[in-house]
Amino acid sequence: METTIGPGRGRATPLPPDERRAAILLAVRPVILARGAAVTSRELAEAAGVAEGTLFRVFTDKVTLVREAVLAAVDPADAIPEIAAIDRTLPLRDKLLLLMTQAQAHVSESMRWMSLLHEVGRLEPAGPTGEQREAAMRQWGRRQQAGTAAVTVAVSELLDLDAHQLRLPLADVIELFNTVLLGATIRTVDASRRGLDTGPPAPEQLVDLILHGVLTPISSDRSS
């Protein structure tokens, strides 16, 4: 049985089942994103660097593989390496700009993946496969919750040096950041549904809203 995952084929040390499963799900992402629900089993096997028979000893069928790849792709924890790569010594605004830019890109990609999930859902038959899908969705919900918590920890570590500058507790600032990001995302989605290509707000605009609000600063002369 072939065990190599990725473009190179040949014999390799067999991966533990969980690692092999995760490696396949990661390897097939590009072809699924490019081909959508029309992707073939052969294309998936080629992307993973395994034989089709090997692929379906790990996953029940093509639809199950595609669905699980999509659910893995929208795991919030995927963002943690990018967050960890941000220089903690940068000024607060610069760090928030990098965070917002990363978050907007992640949300945009997640939206593409979720649209693929709807495509895949239309291909799934009723019966046991439907029950398996519901179980997978419950597992995905738990993964989302754990991933979101892990991202919050990573952001807290990034901004910890700046906590003394903040009027609100750091946890509240992170929640505010997420609220602004979510609001901007909903606005963009709503505009798209109405045929308006407005695009997302600029990261600078959102970060300045978080840091400074919308009021014009009052000078000391005017306040006296």
UniProtKB/TrEMBL annotation:
The keyword Cell membrane does not apply. Residues 40-59 bind DNA. It comes from the Bacteria. Keywords: DNA-binding, Transcription, Transcription regulation. It holds the Pfam family TetR_N. Residues 18-77 form the HTH tetR-type domain. The keyword ATP-binding does not apply. This is AcrR family transcriptional regulator. It comes from Cellulomonas humilata.
